[in-house]
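[retry 2/3] Cytochrome c55X NirC: previous attempt timed out, resubmitting with same input.
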Amino acid sequence: MVVLAIAVPAAASSSQSDADVSPERMAELRAFLTQDCGSCHGLTRKGGLGSPLTPEAIADRSDEDLALTILHGVPGTPMPPWSALLTEAEVDAIVRMLRNGD
Ligand code: HEC
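[retry 2/3] Cytochrome c55X NirC: success.
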């Protein structure tokens, strides 16, 4: 019981520090973007089954709009929701990668 009482708040506070995505997690997200997102959007993000995600292609979309699309997907299309796999901070990091083309 005592162990549980200590472990639970510790786990809760570590998952709340997502605002800072660690360098290790950033590297994982970059690989995820290339492999998972890239399977539909192209390895170089120039499009495929999914639309192009180059900086030019998303220039007229707001960060918030892009983040919501990634979190919730586009119903009725193959674009799935990613909210079960990615936190909002991680999606924001992905939006910055797309924006910068890096
Ligand atoms: C199974 C295929 C598939 C995968 C995997 C996928 N997407 Fe998509 N995505 C799509 C399709 C198809 C669309 C276009 C939907 C439409 O017609 O509006 C789309 C649309 C988008 C859009 C909106 C682009 C725009 O200009 O409207 C964004 C942003 C996006 N995807 C990001 C991602 C990211 C980031 C990932 C990885 C976490 C990802 N997608 C993974 C298929 C996919």
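[retry 2/3] Cytochrome c55X NirC: The chain has one domain: 25-100.
[retry 2/3] clearing retry counter.
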